[in-house]
Amino acid sequence: MSAKTLFEKIWEAHVVHEEPGMQTILYIDLHLVHEVTSPQAFEGLRLAGRRVRRPELTVATMDHNVPTTDRSLPIADPVAQKQIETLRRNCQEFGIKLYDLNDPRQGIVHVIGPELGYTQPGMTIVCGDSHTSTHGAFGALAFGIGTSEVEHVLATQCLLQTKPKTMEVRVEGELPPGVTAKDLILYIIGRIGTHGGTGYCIEYTGSTIRSLSMEQRMTVCNMSIEAGARAGMIAPDEKTYEYLRGRPMAPKDFDRAVAQWEKLPTDPGAQYDRSVQFQAQEVVPQVTWGTNPGQVVGVTDVVPDPDSFPDPNDRKAARRALQYMDLEPGTPIEQIRIDRVFIGSCTNSRIEDLREAARVVRGYRVAPGVEAMVVPGSGTVKRQAEQEGLDRIFREAGFQWREAGCSMCLGMNPDVLQPGQRCASTSNRNFEGRQGKGGRTHLVSPAMAAAAAVMGHFVDIRNWEYR
Amino acid sequence: MPLKPFRRHTGVVATLDRVDVDTDQIIPKQFLKRIERTGFGQFLFYDWRYLPDGSENPEFELNRPEFRGASILLTRRNFGCGSSREHAPWALEDYGFRVLIAPSFADIFYNNCFKNGLLPITLSEEQVEELFGRVRRRPGYQLTVDLEQCRLWDQEGLEFAFTVPEFQRHCLLHGLDQIALTLQHEDKILAYERRRGIGA
């Protein structure tokens, strides 16, 4: 047998049918559903008189448009309310397990999937959300799909897919102190570009990746889509198995499952279509300055001059971005003042992220004039944080402590930036208007966001005085 | 759902001269709360297209008189990056676009287009540049796009061949319902599930 990559092994194990002139019919092991990209899919099923083929392989929650304030109050936005009720009704009608708004385990779909043990190595996982790549951290093939594909999976438990190419992103060495998985992935995106991974499934390899915790690996895989790759994955290992052991949905015969999972990692000598390599030592805390995640520099750098880009399209994009962001070339990143701080999103709202941010905040106050909020990724994360007293640290420092949801990562709920406001955000997209029309987003790690909240501007977390 | 078939289309070309246009720009999030699949055209490029007072932004390309009624959008690299929201192709299609031309498209968006009767065509940077030049020089510039022959041309002798994945081309030409196609292989899905003990 020829040497195979992790991706190839999973792909081949899920091929239902192949024939010339047709895309591959690929079996889907886990379908995650949320309120925003599913209503039209369920409606399509109803119109065609189709059923959900495998409701037991389908899990739903509401996360995108839900308020993060008091859940006992009715939802103020009637359109959001209707979308939530629609998911509720659809799950009931088609027999799908729903983690409803009042369920203590409700949360961001990419946080609760792993947390509850649904996400497992070797699986094919899809969701009508581009950050489904998060689940690749477990050695799963996980990618985002559109609503037509959501309907396709609901009806057939399969997808028609063209096999992507494979790309190895190897990172070697130890990340310097203060440099996190978020900085690493922003650095990688900055290097390969926002379309560097288009057409590929990325596998992250190397000693740096191996040394990351499961939550850090999720942060890395989560932003694969920001490099253009639909999926990003990391081979499962002891950390993966230890994370999963004892989770509610983990396999009952766990040792047997592990024996299978151990066969998944890429064989020695297997070929990728493309390989790139980075040194962890070179990574410093990252801050985006523009309106896509590839427009990023180190915290000790300055806002770049658009004329410094060799490509005329990049020059034009940089000019537009600086105008939107209201930034001058040459401005030191550390002099950029902020109005808001958002700690949350499927990229950085897990317990380790909150611990890291709380460690920075402890003993400090949020700077005058700055509004800062923490939105845990799930009810489970929130309770864990409260047991550890993190909520107290945040509240005493002047942060708002919210209920779980996607919140201001995309501002579909009432958590939005006002026009012109500048935000240090642990989320994944700094697109124009992403966090609110006219809002300006700088993507950073949780520790960097916390430090910015305290100082009122970006600072190099490597020099932080922890209290 | 069966698609609107696409064979040949002639229409005015509008340009959007920007790289990395993300789906948040194509259809901002405030319009994703609707549970319908139609009516998104009015919200296409909303934050670029309209000023804060709700009037049209005269600076925005698609608001130019010569681009009114355009059905072919010519743009730059990595169009449709970001979120998987199919609302983006819904909005483009509902606005009146049938063809998109760019040097590259984001993967999820590219897939979503084919499922909605929208044809994304990838051309080289040079070919895209040539088309941008022609649109600039000739207001009301039109292209004819033929999916059967995989060629596009104008009335001045320019002609480019393009490639589209064969299966997507076939589905679009015939307006096929992909779920129905997959369900023709129901026996194989069942056999696969039996082999894995799924649903047992």
Percent helix of chain A, as a range, is 25-40%
Cross-sheet strand order for the largest sheet of chain A = 5-4-3-6-7
Structural Rg of chain A: 21 Å
Uncertain segments of chain A:
none
- Write down the Rg of chain B: 19 Å
Uncertain residue segments of chain B: none
Query: Number of helix segments of chain B?
Result: 8
Spatial gap, N to C terminus of chain A: 57 Å
What's the rounded overall pLDDT mean of chain A? Answer: 97
Our estimate of the beta-strand percent of chain B is: 15-25%
Please state the oligomeric state of the protein chains shown.
Answer: heterodimer
The total strand number of chain B stands at: 7
Order of SSEs of chain B, N→C? EHHEHEHEHEEEHHH
Structural class of chain B: alpha/beta
Give the proportion of residues in helices of chain B: 25-40%
Shape verdict of chain B: globular
State the gist of this model:
The complex is a heterodimer of chains A (467) and B (200). Chain A is of the alpha/beta class and 467 residues long. Chain A is 31% helix and 16% strand.
Give structural notes.
The complex is a heterodimer of chains A (467) and B (200). With 467 residues, chain A is of the alpha/beta class. Chain A contains 15 helices and 19 strands. A 5-stranded parallel beta sheet of chain A has the order 5-4-3-6-7. Chain A is globular, with a radius of gyration of 21 Å. Chain B is α/β, with parallel strands linked by helices and 200 residues long. In chain B, 32% of the residues lie in helices and 16% in strands. Chain B contains 8 helices and 7 strands, in the order βααβαβαβαβββααα. The longest helix of chain B is centred in the middle third of the chain and has 13 residues, at 125-137. The chains are: A alpha/beta (467), B alpha/beta (200).
